[in-house]
Every structure is written in structure tokens, then in C-alpha cells.
């Protein structure tokens, strides 16, 4: 490896940190950061100081900087990136990589300091029901600012690239979110919930309106299915919408809350009859990639993003955003078990090269090297 390659210094910010893995961005930083270090890149990750009791400077070869934030629901992320950006711009890093379009305006700082930047802007944040009013307007404006101040916009799906071209007249590079094909695991973990293999439908995701668990539950309960519907996930704060769902009384519903044990989660994915995907906004979705990786039969809400991920029906069936459509899809899936088995057998082949973390890392490295030369 040439000496010049070894010197490439990349700062990453905008997520909770490393090796903290809670959401999609944290997972990406872990997968990407460790691979970049293996390729001789100096990787620095900015961590939320409040989340780390112990603060080692280096973890697995990744430099960790613990920056403060104004701790509140709406300000934590933004103030953390603001302080991190100031620190990175006054240091000797070659490239700054930011995740989350909400951080778009901070590109003006790196512009002033003439530091090359890239930003992964993720999904249609301004459409998500949780950002009503000002929050929605802020995310739309911030995403627009990202296209003005950052040197390279990165999207994780072709559909999001089209959206950014249409709305902001800005092209972006498409680098998908990575996934790892998984081995199916035994059914032992299911005993915890008295479940049997193939005897339940599965939802995995935060209990927020844009993941449409309410719609799926309503449609499922209208169906004649004798199976259970298992809902994995929750919200980390008191929420009337989520509580309303959790209070629905029906013996076919099972709310597990968060499942943090990887073996238990693997068991739930591996043995479901069908995985339900109701996520509505955004590009490549990590939960869907996991479902493909574990070989699940998939029923997904019919959106351009889900069509792209399931290759227009090659790796799943679709339902419309109506309870009646969910009901019909459940009953059709139950009446065609051999079709569900076919989907399981071919699911892992849906994780094409574009979703391979090594391939994803190569594409990011190419972007970072190009920016560093500027």
C-alpha cells in the first residue's frame, strides 16, 4: 500500500458513535469504519459524550472523540454535530463524512474552513409523521442546504437519487446500505414467547406511524389467520400512538418490546411464516435487508423504495396502504405456503453485490480519495 493511501484521514459524525450500535447509521459507521481501518485509513468517529461512561481514545483502531451536546429531544443530534464539525474543521483530517440530512446546514462551517465533505442524506425525513410543522419544514430546508454546502451528496437508493434531482436539482452518488447474509438459527429462542416455527407473522421496527404497524395490525386482525402477529420494537419515550397499539386486546397479537439479544432476534426472523415490512419513507432499509439475509418470505408496503429493494416483486409480495389489502395479502399468503417457501429459498440472493459491505466500503473509499485530492 502506498504511503499516500495510509495518510488518508476521515472524520465521521452525525450518529451516536462507535461502537454504539442502536440504529442504522450506527451500524453503518461500525461496518464502514472497521473496514476502512483495515485498508489503512485513519478513521475518527465523533461520539455523543453522554452515551459513553468509558471513553477510550482508540477502539479497534478507530479514533474516538467524545463531543458534548445540548441534551434535549430536538437539539441533541444537531448540537453534537455542530461541536463535532468545529473540532474536525480545526484538525488535520482530510475529509469529513456526515450522516443525516438534518445536519445539512453545518456544511457551511466546512465551507469556511475549506474542508472537503460528503453527506449521506438518508430518507424523506420531512414527510415522516413525527416531524410535524416546524420539524418537517426544518428537515426539508436542511436537506436543501446539504445540497448547497456539501461537496458530495450520497443516497442509498436510486429512488432517493431521483427525489433529490427532482426537488433540489442536485445529483447524488448512490451507495446502498450494506447487509450480511445470515445463517438461519434453531427455534430454541422462540420458547421464550411460546412460539412455534412458521406459526407467526413478524414486524420489526420502531412503533412510529410511518412504519404502519397500525395498518398491518388492523388488516391482520380482519383476516381469518390462526397464526400470531409478533411485533418486535417500541419507542424510547412515552407515546400515545404506540400505547394505543399495545393496548389492543387480541390473543393473536404479541408485542415483545425491544429484542436486544442478537440470537433471539435471529430466531424470530429465521422462523417467521412471513416478515411484514410497512416502512413508508426512506431508501434502503436495514430491517428489510436483515429479513432478506435471514431468508424470510416478505410482504411489503407498495412504495418505490420497497419495489427497488425487492426487485419489483422478485423477492416479495406487496400490499396497498389499506387494511383490506393487508387482510387479502395475509389470506393469500396462508393459502399458498409453497409460494412462501419459494420466497424463503431465494431471499438471500436478493442481497446482490450492491448490498455487500465490502463493496459499499470500496465505493465510499473512492469518494473519500477523490475528495481528499481536491
UniProtKB/TrEMBL annotation:
GO terms for molecular function: glycosyltransferase activity. Residues 194-348 form the Glycosyl transferase family domain. It holds the Pfam family DUF1972. Gene3D superfamilies: Glycogen Phosphorylase B (3.40.50.2000). It comes from the Bacteria. The keyword Glycosyltransferase applies. Residues 9-179 form the DUF1972 domain. Keywords: Glycosyltransferase, Transferase. Its EC number is 2.4.-.-. Signal peptide: none annotated. SUPFAM superfamilies: UDP-Glycosyltransferase/glycogen phosphorylase. This is Glycosyltransferase.
Amino acid at each position: 500500500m502506498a504511503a499516500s493511501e495510509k495518510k488518508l484521514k476521515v472524520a465521521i459524525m452525525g450518529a451516536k458513535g462507535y461502537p454504539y450500535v442502536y440504529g442504522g447509521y450506527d451500524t453503518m459507521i461500525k461496518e464502514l469504519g472497521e473496514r476502512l481501518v483495515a485498508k489503512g485509513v485513519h478513521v475518527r468517529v465523533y461520539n455523543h459524550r453522554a452515551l459513553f461512561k468509558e471513553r477510550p481514545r482508540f477502539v479497534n483502531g478507530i479514533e474516538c472523540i467524545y463531543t458534548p451536546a445540548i441534551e434535549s429531544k430536538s437539539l441533541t443530534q444537531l448540537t453534537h454535530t455542530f461541536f463535532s464539525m468545529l473540532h474536525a474543521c480545526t484538525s488535520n483530517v482530510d475529509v469529513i463524512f456526515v450522516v443525516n440530512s438534518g445536519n445539512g446546514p453545518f456544511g457551511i462551517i466546512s465551507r469556511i474552513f475549506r474542508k472537503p465533505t460528503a453527506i449521506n442524506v438518508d430518507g424523506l425525513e420531512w414527510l415522516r409523521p413525527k416531524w410535524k410543522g416546524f420539524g418537517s419544514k426544518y428537515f426539508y430546508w436542511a436537506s436543501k442546504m446539504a445540497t448547497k454546502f456539501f461537496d458530495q451528496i450520497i443516497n442509498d437508493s436510486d429512488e432517493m437519487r431521483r427525489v433529490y434531482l427532482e426537488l433540489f436539482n442536485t445529483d447524488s452518488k448512490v451507495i446502498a446500505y450494506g447487509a450480511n447474509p445470515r445463517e438461519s438459527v434453531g427455534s430454541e429462542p422462540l420458547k421464550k414467547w411460546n412460539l412455534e416455527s412458521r406459526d407467526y407473522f413478524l414486524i420489526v421496527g420502531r412503533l412510529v406511524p410511518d412504519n404502519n404497524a397500525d395498518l398491518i395490525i388492523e388488516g391482520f386482525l380482519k383476516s381469518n389467520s390462526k397464526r400470531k402477529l409478533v411485533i418486535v420494537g417500541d419507542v424510547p419515550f412515552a407515546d400515545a400512538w404506540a400505547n394505543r397499539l399495545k393496548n389492543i386486546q387480541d390473543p393473536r397479537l404479541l408485542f415483545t418490546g425491544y429484542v436486544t439479544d442478537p440470537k433471539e432476534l435471529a430466531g424470530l426472523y429465521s422462523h417467521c411464516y412471513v416478515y411484514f415490512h410497512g416502512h413508508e419513507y426512506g431508501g434502503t432499509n436495514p430491517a428489510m435487508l436483515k429479513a432478506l439475509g435471514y431468508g424470510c418470505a416478505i410482504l411489503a408496503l407498495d412504495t418505490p423504495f420497497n419495489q427497488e429493494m425487492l426487485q419489483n416483486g422478485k423477492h416479495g409480495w406487496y400490499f396497498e396502504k389499506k387494511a383490506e389489502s393487508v387482510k387479502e395479502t395475509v389470506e393469500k399468503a396462508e393459502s399458498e405456503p409453497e409460494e412462501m417457501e419459494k420466497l424463503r429459498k431465494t431471499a438471500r440472493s436478493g442481497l446482490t453485490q450492491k448490498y455487500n459491505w465490502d463493496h459499499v466500503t470500496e465505493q465510499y473509499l473512492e469518494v473519500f480519495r477523490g475528495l481528499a485530492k481536491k
